[in-house]
Design goal:
The protein contains eleven helices and 32 strands.
Length: 589
C-alpha cells in the first residue's frame, strides 16, 4: 500500500490521500484501488483512456462510514439498494468498510474483510469476503462471500461500475434484446415484458433510472457502445441474475457530491446484480458464493485497414492492423461475412467478451469480399477489389469469393487473403503468444469456411493450431469429380485447380471442423441456394446439414474430424454465435 498522487483521466488529477494499491498489466495498463470499500477508483488500459468515472478528485470524495461515493467500481453486499435491515444505509456494508490487503502481485491484488462489531451492529451475521482485481488486457474482478457462522442467511449483491462515457445520451448497451425487464418506476408491472433491440442509455439519462433486466443462466455479456469516446466496453458478469441500467439523470447536484451538476451526463452504470429479497441467494454455514466481472475495452467501431502489398485494395476490419502484432493475443478469430456482406464487417455480437470470459485473449478480424452488386448498391467506386462480377444471373466459380475465386481482373483469391492473415498470425515476432486460429463463418461465410478447410493452404507455424467453425451454410462441398465446383470438385478456380481429390480428402481428414445449424433454419426463402445441384443436397439448410452428416460417414478419416451440433430454437441468424458449445470450441476449451 502506498500514498500516491495518480493522474487518472484527461479530466482530473486525483491525489489519493488514503491507502491505495496500484497494479499494472504486462502491456502497461494501470489500475488503482482503495482499501476503503475495496473500490477500484481507476483503470487505464495500455494506450487508452480512463474507464471509470468519479464525481470529483478522489482525495475530495467522502471517505467515512455510511457515505456513498458515486464512482469507480464498488461491490455491494450483503444487500443491494434498500434491501437491508430497516433504517440501514443503501447497498450493504462492504462499500463503507476498511478492507485488508491479503495478497498482492504486480498485476493482481486481493482484498479481504471479516465481520466486525460495527458490521454486526447493523447485520448480525459472521462472514468472510474477498475481492480480487486482476489486470491484463482485460480487468477481472472476482468477489467471493463465505458464511463463517453456524446458521444460514440470505444475501443480495452486485457490482455497480460507473463507466465513464462521452455523453450518456448517445450511448447504447447490447445484450438486452428479448430479455424480460421492468422500470423501477413501474415495478408493479413485474418483468413480464420483453425488451426489443439494444438499450438506449438516454432512457436513464433523462431521469428514468433503474431499468432492470432478467438474465438467463450462464455468463451475461453486454457491450456498452460509446460513439463519443469512440470505444466499446465489453462487460461479462457471472453469478448474477439481473442487469441494472442506472444513471443519476440530468442533474447530479441532488446528490451533493460533485461541483459539476452535469456529471450525470458522463457516466453510465451497467450493473450485474442479484437483487430483491424474493430472489436472494442463501448461504449455508461454510458455503460460498462468487460474483465475477470481466471487462475489456476496444474501439467502438472496428477500424478498417487495407491488406499490405495488394492492388487493387482488399480491406478488413479489426481493432488494429494485423501487421502491427499483439504480444498478448493467444487466439485469432477470422470472421467471414454472409453473402450480402463485403461492405460492412461481419456480425461479432459480443464475441470478444464471451471469449475473454472463457480465459482467451482474442484478436478478431473480419476480411471483406464485396461483390460487384454490393458495391453498386452502396455506390462505392473507389477501385477496390470485387468478386462475383456476374451478369444476367450467370454465376462463375472463377470469381466467387465463397469458393476461393479470384477478385475480378486479378490473380488474388479470397483464400489467398486468409493465407496471408494466417501467416501473419503465425509470425512469432508479431504474435508470440498465439496458440490458436479459428476461421468462423455463418451462411455464405460458412460455405467459405467449409471450402477453405478442404483446399486452403493453412500456413501455420509449429505450435499454432488452425481449426474451423462452419455454421449453417446454404450448400456443402462433396467430393464428386463430375459435379461443378461449389457442390463438387469439377472446374475448380485457379487457387485449388491443381489439387487432386486425394489431396483434398487428406486435408479434410486432418482438419478439425465444428459444424452447427439452428433447428429452426428450415426456410426455403431468402438467400437459400435453390439451384438443382443445391436441391439435390436437401430442401433447406437444416435438411442439408443432416444429409451432409450422413454423407461424410463414407469417409471415416474425414468424419472423425467433424462434429455436428443442432442449435435448439434458433433460425438463420447470428444468434447461433451465442451457443456455448461453439464458444468453447473457438476458445479451445
Amino acid at each position: 500500500m502506498k500514498k500516491r498522487t495518480f493522474v487518472l483521466t484527461g479530466m482530473m488529477a486525483i491525489a489519493a490521500t488514503a491507502a491505495t494499491v496500484e497494479i499494472t498489466s504486462p502491456d502497461g495498463g494501470r489500475a488503482v484501488a482503495d482499501t476503503y470499500g475495496a473500490r477500484l477508483i481507476s483503470w487505464r488500459p495500455a494506450g487508452g483512456e480512463e474507464v471509470f468515472a468519479l464525481p470529483k478528485p478522489y482525495d475530495k470524495c467522502p471517505r467515512e462510514a455510511g457515505v456513498q461515493i458515486h464512482g469507480g467500481l464498488p461491490v455491494y453486499w450483503p444487500w443491494f439498494v434498500f434491501e437491508g435491515p430497516e433504517g440501514c444505509k443503501i447497498h450493504g456494508v462492504t462499500s463503507y468498510a476498511e478492507w485488508k490487503v491479503k495478497e498482492r502481485t504486480a498485476n493482481r491484488v486481493v482484498f479481504s474483510l471479516d465481520d466486525t462489531p460495527a458490521t454486526r451492529a447493523v447485520w448480525p451475521h459472521p462472514f468472510h469476503v474477498e475481492l480480487a482485481y486482476e489486470l491484463g488486457t482485460t480487468l477481472v474482478a472476482t468477489f467471493t462471500a463465505v458464511n463463517t457462522g453456524s446458521g444460514p442467511y440470505a444475501c443480495t449483491e452486485g457490482f455497480h461500475p460507473y463507466f465513464r462515457v462521452g455523453d450518456t445520451m448517445r450511448c447504447a448497451v447490447t445484450g438486452t434484446d428479448g430479455a424480460r425487464y421492468f422500470w423501477k418506476g413501474e415495478a408493479d408491472k413485474g418483468d413480464k415484458r420483453r425488451w426489443k433491440g439494444d438499450f438506449p442509455a438516454r432512457l436513464v439519462a433523462i431521469g428514468k433510472p433503474g431499468y432492470v433486466f432478467e438474465e438467463k443462466a450462464g455468463p451475461h455479456c453486454h457491450l456498452l457502445k460509446d460513439p463519443v469516446l469512440n470505444r466499446a466496453i465489453d462487460v461479462t458478469f457471472e453469478g448474477n441474475i439481473k442487469i441494472v441500467m442506472w444513471n443519476s439523470g440530468p442533474d447530479f447536484s441532488k446528490f451533493g457530491e460533485s461541483d459539476d451538476p452535469s456529471y450525470g451526463g458522463r457516466f453510465l452504470c451497467l450493473e450485474g446484480a442479484t437483487l430483491y429479497r424474493d430472489r436472494a441467494y442463501t448461504l449455508a454455514p461454510g458455503a460460498s458464493h462468487t460474483l465475477k466481472a470481466t471487462i475489456a475495452v476496444r474501439p467502438f467501431k472496428p477500424a478498417r485497414f487495407a491488406m499490405a502489398g495488394l492492388s487493387p485494395a482488399i480491406y478488413y476490419d479489426a481493432a488494429h492492423a494485423v501487421s502491427a502484432g499483439d504480444p498478448d493475443a493467444d487466439l485469432a478469430v477470422i470472421v467471414v461475412h454472409g453473402y450480402g456482406g463485403g461492405i460492412k464487417p461481419a456480425s461479432r455480437n459480443t464475441l470478444q467478451a464471451k471469449l475473454a470470459a472463457r480465459g482467451a485473449k482474442p484478436f478478431i478480424v473480419s476480411p471483406l469480399f464485396p461483390s460487384r452488386a454490393a458495391l453498386e448498391k452502396a455506390k462505392i467506386k473507389d477501385g477496390r477489389a470485387m468478386w462475383c462480377n456476374w451478369k444476367d444471373g450467370v454465376r462463375s466459380p472463377a470469381d466467387d469469393w465463397r469458393g476461393g475465386g479470384d477478385a475480378g481482373g486479378t490473380t488474388i483469391s479470397s483464400f489467398d487473403v486468409i493465407d496471408r492473415m494466417v501467416a501473419t498470425f503465425s509470425d512469432k515476432t508479431l504474435y508470440p503468444s498465439m496458440k490458436r486460429i479459428v476461421l468462423l463463418g455463418l451462411s455464405a461465410g460458412g460455405q467459405f469456411v467449409g471450402r477453405y478447410a478442404a483446399v486452403g493452404k493453412c500456413p501455420v507455424r509449429a505450435g499454432v493450431k488452425m481449426e474451423f467453425a462452419d455454421i449453417a451454410p446454404s450448400t456443402e462441398l462433396r467430393l464428386d469429380e463430375d459435379v461443378e465446383w461449389h457442390y463438387g470438385l469439377k472446374n475448380r478456380p485457379r487457387y485449388s485447380a491443381a489439387l487432386s481429390r486425394d489431396a483434398i480428402l487428406a486435408n479434410l481428414s486432418s482438419r478439425r471442423v465444428w459444424r452447427g445449424c439452428g433447428t429452426l433454419d428450415v426456410s426455403q426463402g431468402g438467400a437459400l441456394d435453390k439451384s438443382p445441384a443445391a436441391m439435390m443436397q436437401g430442401i433447406n439448410r437444416y435438411d442439408r446439414f443432416h444429409n451432409f452428416q450422413e454423407y461424410i460417414k463414407a469417409f471415416p478419416g474425414w468424419a472423425k474430424q467433424v462434429s455436428f451440433h443442432d442449435i435448439p430454437g434458433v433460425g438463420h441468424s447470428g444468434k447461433t454465435f451465442d451457443d456455448p458449445r461453439l464458444l468453447d470450441f473457438i476458445s479451445g476449451k
